[in-house]
Every structure is written in structure tokens, then in C-alpha cells.
Amino acid sequence: MKLSSLIGHVTELAAEVHGSPKPADRHIDLFFRSRKYLGSKDRRFIAETVYGMLRHRTRIAWMLSETGIPEEERSRCAAYLLLSTSATSEELAEVTGYPVALMENLRTTATVTPPVPAVAYSFQDWMLEQWTRVWGADETAALCSVMNTQALMTIRVNTIRISREECRQALLREGIETEPSKLSPFGLHLKRRTNLFQLTAFKDGLFEVQDEGSQLLALLVDPKPGSKVVDACAGAGGKALAMAAVMKNRGEIFALDVHSYRLDELRKRIKRSGVDTIRAAVINEGETLPKLLGTADAVLVDAPCSGSGTIRRNPGMKWSITRQMIGELQQKQSSILALNAQYVKPGGRLVYATCSLMTEENEGIAQQFLSLHPGFSLVPPAAILDRYGLAHIAPKEYFQLLPQRYDTDGFFAAVFQRNIAP
Fold it and tell me: What is the pTM of this model?
């Protein structure tokens, strides 16, 4: 497809995405479904350009302002292509209708780093201010740079059915090249993005799509074969399925959620994966299952959160996350954690986890829980991960993965143990 046609599709899709409360990937999926004539290369160009326009929104606006070009989808598209691709001023002038001289000025501006970090990295000021306080300016700059790139496409091998190397060879036979993940013993990174859900290996339950950091949370819960585990906010069950594999498909995992449609998806995944240990149950918000109180060896509370650690996958979240939202989430997180702590038996463990990079949702919740629940103690995550040779990634009192360090999504976890009464 000609560049002019591609840019036409980009501006049409970008107009739908811009300002919409829905995640960009939903718009993109629907857009492509209604345009079957688009080939894989065209789809890749369109999707990557729209995502890029979202990722660099503030910097693009600055570029256009500096050059005196009005903001519209067409000009935003041109600015992004000059910023991040090898497109020339002449090419873009021809297909957008802007004068070559104006595009050349825009190209020159693209080589200049804006003086304000929030503009240079296209993040909200308050986010950068908080991260700089916590990690310092250099670490924050590295974080923002990585968050402006495309996330890895990672799968978790279903070791109940197949080994990692066997799965790797099965995928290779279908033309999919992978490499083993560096941290998770179950992970494979794809060398190029593809539609995995059409593969025979997926339909046969040999793998699930799951970020490497999410896989590591299953190790942190440390569920033993034959034990009883509660996944209190199970959703579609990615972590429950991972824990079932860690448990070698022996024991009981109670996957709980307030949304029945999420558990419907989990049931499909259970069937495909050949897992026998997961029991999915819908619960009412603010309620517990009495039969499970005080009986679980391990409880995972993967709490609803801002999702700021997954911005690479949904760059529109840069602008949808607000301080007010964080405050509202804190109340919900504290309540959910306290509620589900009741499932833990004496000597059992409770893992609080988020995919957030915000201190208020992470350390703040963990510290509050400890102050209100003296019957629980903090467990160093390194002591758990050492058996997998991963103690080095969690040297402090909490578990935290930052995208710039390990190329995963951003995750946080605190591990508590319920004290045994003397």
C-alpha cells in the first residue's frame, strides 16, 4: 500500500483513539477487523504509528508548536514519522500536502531534545516528579525511555504438557522463532510479533501469552505441590494457570473474582491447558467464601491497580491515570488485601501484588497492612527466589521489577506470613 494510503488509515484510526476512554488496542482490533484487505505489513505500520503517536504525544505537540504547525492527526502523524522513522521531509510533504520547507523545519525540530523532561518523554509532570523522588533522575530517565518502546511478546510454556525446549521446537516447526527468557524458567520471547492464537501449539495448550514478570509472581507465591492456594483476584487466570504448573498440577487453587465473564475465559483456558487443580468461583464484592477462611497455604492478591507498569502495552494510560484515581484505588486495595488475608492459615503466606509503579499503591499499602495486622510479618522475597537462582532481582524487603532493568512489565509484590500463635 502506498504511503499516502497508509497515512490516511493512520489518521482515521488515530482520530478514533485520541481522547477515547477505551484502550487503544481495542480500537485497533476493531479497525483491522473491518478492513480485511490490509496486509500484515500494512497493519504493522498503522498500529505502530498510532501507538507511537500516543507514546510521544507531548513531544509531538511541542515539535508542532515550535514549528508553527497546527495540531491535527495528519500533522501529528508526520511529526512522529520524522521523529522515529527514516521517512524524509520530501516524502511526507508529498503525501500530507504540507510544504517541503515546513516538513524540513519539523525534521530539524525532531532532532532537538525538549528542555522539560515531561515533554521530552511525554509523561505527566506528577508521574516524573514521583519517580524521580523514589529512584533519582537517571533511573527515571531510563525508565521513561524504555516505557516509550514496544514491549516484548512473551509466552509461558505450559510445563504440565511440555518442556520449554520441546515447546520451542514445536513453535519452530510452525515458523516461530523464540529465545528463552532470562529470568523465568518457563518463558520464551518471540523474535518477531505474530498472531499466536492461530497456532496449533496454542490450540493444543502448549503455552499461554504472559509477561515474564507475571510469570515470576507465580514463583514468588511459592505454591507447593499438593497445597491449597487462593487467587483472590483471578481475572482470566493467567497467574492461577502459572501456579498450577509450579504445583505440577497437584493440589487446589481457588480462583476467585467478582466478574463472571473473566472466569468464563479462565474456564476455557483451564480446558485447553489440561489443568485439574483450579476451581473458579464468582464472589460478591466485599464478601469471602466461609469454607476457605483460615485454610490456605498461600493467598495471592493481585489487586486492581493503575496498571502504570504496563504503559508500554497501552500507552494511552499515560494520560488516563490521575492522582484522584490513585487515591480511589488505594482504598480499594487496602480493603481487598485485608479481606483476603482471612483465608491465610497460621504459618501460611499472603502475597500482595500490583502491576503499578506508584508508591502509594505498593509500599504504601504494604506498610499500612502491617501496621493494622500485627499477626503478619514481612518475608524477604530473596529467600523465596533464591531456589530459582533469582535472589539478585529482589535484594530488598519488597519485590519490584522495573522495565528498564529486566525488560518486563513493571511489577511490585510484598510477601507476608501469618504468625503462628505461641
Answer: 0.94
